[in-house]
Amino acid sequence: MSLKLVIADDEPMARERLRMLLADESGVEVVAEAGDGQQVLDACAVHRPHAVLLDIAMPGIDGLETARRLAAATPPTAVVFCTAYDAHALSAFEAAALDYLVKPVRPERLAAALERVRTFLAGRPATASGKRTHLCARLRGSLRLIPLEDVRYLQAEEKYVVVHHARGEDLIEESLKSLEDEFADRFVRIHRNCLVARQELVELRRGTDGHVMAMLRSGGTPLEVSRRCVPQLRQTLRHL
């Protein structure tokens, strides 16, 4: 399957350079070009690309806002920023960009970005339900896919969520609340900062200090259950 791309830049010469670089990449098809954010959104609605190579400084809807809208779509469209400035990198990743390329774009960096896009797509659901089958973590400049069935629990830590899974731990840049809403059938809240896979719950035990702890099927350290979550969690255990 070809990787369908939209090239978005308000400078025709910049779009031409990207098109020339992409001509050397196998399995890539440029389905449209755009000069501003609205054209990007229109092109994505028509062509359903896998990803957009997106400039930030464009007239009208800028690249950052365009990226936010694409990330909120169902399914989301992957975004790789291609910009002349590196000052927007943090904002770019907050807008859920997969990569951030600084012009002039080097062929090897473009190839690496396209590989990230393919990894991202591999984690997207192939089911009619539209639900994801994997979580996606950043790891030293690459992406790691974590099958949902391997996840034991999710724990909020500052602005990240730590995914505890069968192969270890990874950080993801998603909120615990959004994960709870998306995967309510798979995870249950035991604390304001922790969701546990329903299949992992074995029993609740009250410690000598009076705190209730959740015992996990996979073993490891028991997890504290907040007082407000105990009644609902007992109900959940009865129906597992």
Description:
The chain has 240 residues and is α/β, with parallel strands linked by helices. It has helices spanning 12-23, 37-47, 63-71, 89-94, 107-122, 176-182, 230-238; strands at residues 3-8, 28-34, 51-54, 78-83, 99-102, 134-139, 142-147, 151-157, 160-165, 168-172, 187-191, 194-197, 201-206, 212-216, 223-225. Helix 2 runs parallel beside helix 3. The mean pLDDT is 88.
Can you summarize this structure?
With 240 residues, the chain is α/β, with parallel strands linked by helices. The chain is 29% helix and 33% strand.
Show the helix and strand layout.
Layout: E1 3-8, H1 12-23, E2 28-34, H2 37-47, E3 51-54, H3 63-71, E4 78-83, H4 89-94, E5 99-102, H5 107-122, E6 134-139, E7 142-147, E8 151-157, E9 160-165, E10 168-172, H6 176-182, E11 187-191, E12 194-197, E13 201-206, E14 212-216, E15 223-225, H7 230-238
Parallel strand pairs: 1-2, 1-3, 3-4, 4-5
Antiparallel strand pairs: 6-7, 8-9, 8-12, 9-10, 11-12, 13-14, 14-15
Helix pairs in contact: 2-3
What portion of the residues fall into strands of 2 or more residues?
A: 25-35%
User: What's the rounded overall pLDDT mean?
Assistant: 88
Strand order of the largest sheet: 2-1-3-4-5
Q: Main beta sheet: strand number and arrangement?
A: 5 strands, parallel
- What is the H/E string? EHEHEHEHEHEEEEEHEEEEEH
Number of strands: 15
N-to-C terminal Cα separation, in Å?
Answer: 41 Å
Tally of contiguous helical segments: 7
Structure class? alpha/beta
* Estimated radius of gyration: 21 Å
| Poorly predicted residue ranges | none
Query: Overall 3D geometry?
Result: elongated
